[in-house]
Amino acid sequence: MAEITSLQHAIEHLVHDGDFVALEGFTHLIPFAAGHEIIRQRKSGLTLVRMTPDLIYDQLIGAGCARKLIFSWGGNPGVGSLHRFRDAVEAGWPVQLEIEERSHADLANAYVAGASNLPFAVMRGYAGCDLPTHNLKIRTITCPFTGEQLAAVPAVRPDVTVIHAQKADRRCNVLLWGILGVQKEAVLAARRVIVTVEEIVDTLDDWPNACILPGWVIDAVCEVPRGATPSYAHGYYARDNYFYRAWDGISRSRESFVEWVERHIHEVATFSEYLSILDAESAKGTR
Amino acid sequence: MKDSLSQSTTVERMTIASSRLLRDGQVCFVGIGLPSTAANLARLTHAPNVVLIYESGPIGARPHVLPLSIGDGDLAETADTVVSTPEIFRYWLQGGRIDIGFLGAAQIDRFANINTTVIGKYSKPKIRLPGAGGAPEIAGSAKELLIILRQSPRAFVEKLDFVTSVGFGEGGDHRERLGLPGHGPRAVVTDLCIMEPEATTRELTVTWLYEGVSRDQVIAATGWPVRFAADVSVLGSATETELATLRDLQHRTNVAHGGMIGEAS
């Protein structure tokens, strides 16, 4: 049964060095506050999985938290490259990053397999593609009924999944809506689960078939308003497209990235302090 | 007609030309960037009933402005429904519901195989590109495929550094032998021409040129000895409606996103 805790406490007790960690959210509801807290607590040796590493994993990779990345599309959406990710792959900075590359359909299926307590997923894909040559975990399987050759890909079973959602009630039932991505599957595939939410309310006031994750599949719920910034929370705030563009400059050199992480993550105690700095920078027009 | 395709910018003319290839009522699985621009232009001009599906989950999206990311809130708010990402790939794409996939690429070869993964060796890349995303399965399972990219010898190469998504493999019936359910690329739209696969070899062949573009320009921008169809046509001019609609859409998008257009570099 989940507890309502601070994010600091949840990350400290539920994310361990060397863990296999998923911080999911498909463009929407990306759990940036949790990513910052992992960096602030200097967690290391993590194997990270995410369909789209996005800025959140660019930050974790550049900060040296990751040993390995499992992913399917590694760009800055609408802007270009993830420079910290590229530097880690191309030049081994700050550490050589091992990559396990898959496709979106593969990872989506792999989370479903994980949530379904299956060792692998079956899908129609990868025929003629070069990825299976480099990722030997992508195999083929013959359908016992038709003889068709299909792709078999290993399930994703994270030690910890972290997601951000709009609301939780006081019993820690979590409600999310809008673009849902693979969050439900990532939660149900994991051993431990942390959910940050925009707000904790008395009643979710939801409707039948709403995407609800019951409190008893979650370990910690943390109230972190604007915790998905610079991504967005449908019904709360919009995507900070300026930040996504600014990140291209911030992350381009190692020096400016390190300086940014020091000032915006290590020198603050909480995500809300970070947001105050961002707001001040916006007001001054310095970003 | 005051404006024509030759007076539009090269990006505008390739966007308009590819939008015309979408038919009204088709179900289109849309990639971000130019494919999304062209698909929405089609929706706002000749194909009001085109159904746009984005891999983030929106089905039947009618965005007011072009999305900057594949999961913008506007896509969700204007869609008929929003499903999870596993459902999009399992039920809708693999399930055979997609008439046409619409993709961009970094590199393409003569059999319309595309690379969006690496330039150079995979283990020691010169340039690490974003990777597969939804492209391999879109290229595999959509009933047909449109590809849009700028033409240059660096993009149109003799041999791909990496096959991310399969067009016609090694040509001929290779695609069928691979067991891919969709029929493969129908056309490749560039800033110089449109290429279509030849019926038996499946090699990309120039079938349309924009007004004012010479064969030599196409030859110079292609990394293999490019072939021309026996009958190469000249693309018709953009209508005022097409250009005005595209420019209005771009303008609204720029205002909404603070000067950022929805095209990844």
Overview of the molecule:
The complex is a heterodimer of chains A (287) and B (265). Chain A contains ten helices and 15 strands. Chain A is of the alpha/beta class. Chain A is globular, with a radius of gyration of 19 Å. In chain A, 54% of the residues are buried. The mean pLDDT of chain A is 96. Chain B has helices at residues 10-19, 34-44, 73-78, 85-93, 135-141, 174-178, 215-220, 240-257; strands at residues 27-30, 51-54, 58-59, 81-82, 100-103, 107-108, 114-115, 118-120, 125-128, 144-148, 185-189, 193-197, 204-209, 227-234. In chain B, helix 1 (10-19) packs across helix 2. The radius of gyration of chain B is 18 Å and the shape is globular. With 265 residues, chain B is of the alpha/beta class. Chain B is built from eight helices and 14 strands. Chain B has one domain (10-254): Glutaconate Coenzyme A-transferase, CATH 3.40.1080. In chain B, the strands form four sheets. In chain B, strands 2-1-5-10-11-12-13-14 form an eight-stranded mixed beta sheet, sandwiched between helices. Chain B is 27% helix and 21% strand. The interface between A and B is large, with 56 and 59 residues.
